[in-house]
Amino acid sequence: MYRIAMVSTGGTIEKTYNEFDGLLVNALSNLDFILAQLVLTGVEIFRVPLMNKDSTEMSDIDHELIAKTVELYTAQHDGVVVVHGTDRLTETGERIEQRLGVPRVPVVLTGAMRPFQLRNTDAIQNVTEALLAVQIAPPGVYVAMHNRLLPFPGAVKDRRHGTFVMAAELEKG
Asked: Which residue, 5, 32, 147, 154, could crosslink 77 as a Cys pair with Cβ 3.0–4.6 Å?
């Protein structure tokens, strides 16, 4: 049985629609619903609901808390997936890499550009990719989104195209 710790921190993937004010907010978790839709034979998921914040509201203290939590769970599991908002995912990925160097097991961050509750969400695809990547990637810190697995440091959000790329790719245009 492959043991994966899934640390949830919030972000767009966790946003829910508030019908009273028409806003998307981080109020409840969508991850259990996403996981219930997947066939995860041979995998045991340990959910770690650390926080439920929009990443634009995260501080250095939050990034450090996530990195410390990941460090704790790398000692007890075969891999760690961190579900995170995309706006500050790079800061957290780099903080984890700075704190752990090359961790004992793969650590994969993921999120969504479009909320789970929207019809054209990328949430299910990205969670599925992260769960596969954490099982087959060598030890390291990565982001898995949109059919790519990118290492830290160097992975950055490409706001123009709504995905993640290596910084060198973004600089080329």
From this structure: 5
> How far is CA 173 from each of CA 40, 104, 135, 164, rounded to the nearest angstrom?
38, 35, 32, 13
Per-residue pLDDT tens over the stretch 135-173: 999 999 999 999 999 999 999 999 999 999 999 888 776
Nearest to 80 by CA among 62, 101, 100, 107: 107
Rounded Cα distance, 126 and 83, in Å: 10
Cα–Cα distance for residue pair 104/81, rounded to 1 Å: 14
Q: Which tens digits make up the pLDDT trace of 92-111?
A: 999 999 999 999 999 999 99
- Using alpha carbons only, give the angle 128, 131, 134 rounded to the nearest 5 degrees: 145
